[in-house]
Amino acid sequence: PQAFSLFGSERRGAPVFGFLRVDDGPIYLKCRIKHPDHVMIFDFSLPEDQEVLSELKPGGLALLNTHSKIDFFQEWRALRLGLIDAEAIARSAGLGHSFNTAMLGAYARLTGLVKLDTLISVVRSMAPSKIEANVEAVRRAYDEVKGYGPEEMPNE
Known about the structure:
By secondary structure, the chain is an alpha/beta fold. Helices cover about 30% and strands about 20% of the residues. It is built from 5 helices and 6 strands. The strands form 2 sheets. The chain has a 4-stranded mixed β-sheet with strand order 3-4-5-6, covered by helices on one side. It has a two-stranded antiparallel sheet with strand order 1-2. The chain starts with a strand and ends in an 8-residue tail after the last strand.
């Protein structure tokens, strides 16, 4: 895997785009990812910047950390969309505002790329602290995420 960040012109308080490439072979390209397969949006203010979703591949997944209901997202009818209130899950698990593991649980459920047992095993072996709280966040997000395909989006 390869990960890196892209900051706006103002560094403090500015949105940060984080990129992650995962492949079975070596990754040599070290630039911004164009046409991603999936987008995980941790800060819900980011979708206001249309650049975040404009290059998502057809059939790609946008996973959003939000407490909003699906009707808020009607303009995104063409996307595969995942909604999870990862912050609320993290707080209730005792993790404060650290909701990365909740987002991973939701992502695992929506993509099927990682089995829940495998993800829990990785969290147990790698979480630096609050291991069981992180496991709880993964499980709850896996169970609670709402996923919508273009054909599944409810009508207004």
